[in-house]
């Protein structure tokens, strides 16, 4: 093994004394000496010739110094001997001194052999300067003058400490290299343990608190886990009163308030629907009667223009839907096999929501134009009339398209209810859980949740119109006892819709940190809208256009009334048409008055309650 020196400069005086000793008979050719300069990376090898005298060696060194000046810090690079060479060159008992130098300082270390040196081990390599390789004796150091600077004296404690550290470092390097050589040569030996493993074992041994119970038995570890605390303490944090309130808000308080708000919104939509079928025709008849009575064209008010626009849109949609063959659409939807019924229903529901939003904007535009036409001057009347006609055409087209979408949706629901292959349950499951998936895991603000509740109120009213369509179809075409199954299916549809709405809004409020009191505020705004009280945010009002549902209801109820008319002469038939229409009008008007009175009374009571609560809280 090669051994790198510690960099001390060679003392040629000691070398000359060592080489001129006649008591030692050795072969100096096996002891190569390598001098390596720190400034020159390439080593300079100067062999020591045994045929020359020490005086010749000194002359040779002086000649080389003339050509090239050796730097002050030079090293002995590698110097190694084997046991066989030591046996030939240094017999036991004859070797008294062996010298090596370290080139990083100016001192020389001389190692003397003890009086009784043990015989060398066979087949082992040793390095000069290695304590374990060669059994040197004690180390001595002398002062050497280099460039006028005197080094430390012999036996200095600093030098002794430095030398001991160097010897330990050299010993560790030689041992590691010996192990590497043994592994490369294929000699079986004990492999070095990893440093990480040694550190881990030391950590285990020095751990006073036994943080890592590696030496504990499985039974003891299991018993400690049993008495350590909560079994879910590592994955479930300890709650507080706020978390408890949140749990009971999600289970009890919020579902009740959400369902109350949706139901009140449903009745507001029903009141608007009945107003379209009762109040609007009455106003239109009064306008026509006044015109026929006075025979003079009087400028109409904004309310009258708005009612005329709604009447034209309703009449156009009802007339076009009367030309639609429901049985043809029914068999087309039921007979197709490419797209499932629940997919068709979901697609129609998406378009229903789109045209519901668009129809609200169209009607707002129409009412704004009617207001401008009623208050316009004589010079601008023509401009406002053209604008009103354009807005009316857009409103009629939008209501007609929306009416056809709702009719197709009602026919699809009727097909699912009539079918005997559990198509209704597939429709409800796919539609409702798709609604939960698309809404629950999104980020909502308070205003968005407010509008979402109103959409659910409108959707529930549309479902009621669809079930009325199914009832009318059963009255016309069903045979046998059908009313019980109809009630059961209608109940399943309503209960599933109510359950899905509660789950959806409860978890939307949970994920978006919306308190149940927010739904009470929404209900207060809806009550103010019922009483026509202006609110701070008009955009959050419930927007519902009943034109398309009214067209669908008129389309499905007309055949029912026609089937019960007597087949008598025309005057008698006209009498029954007038009588049934009057009875229907009275019934709808009575229902409208009852719902309107109930909504207004509830709105006043709830607003007073909220105001009293705010006063008590202040």
Automatic annotation (TrEMBL):
The record's keywords, sorted A to Z, are: Membrane, Transmembrane, Transmembrane helix
What name does UniProt use for this protein? Protein POLLEN DEFECTIVE IN GUIDANCE 1
Q: Which family does it belong to?
A: Belongs to the TAPT1 family.
Q: Which organism is it from?
A: Solanum pennellii (Tomato)
Pfam families given for it?
DUF747 (PF05346)
Cite the InterPro entries for this sequence.
Tatp1
Q: Where is the composition biased (Basic residues)?
A: 57-70
Topology within the bilayer = Multi-pass membrane protein
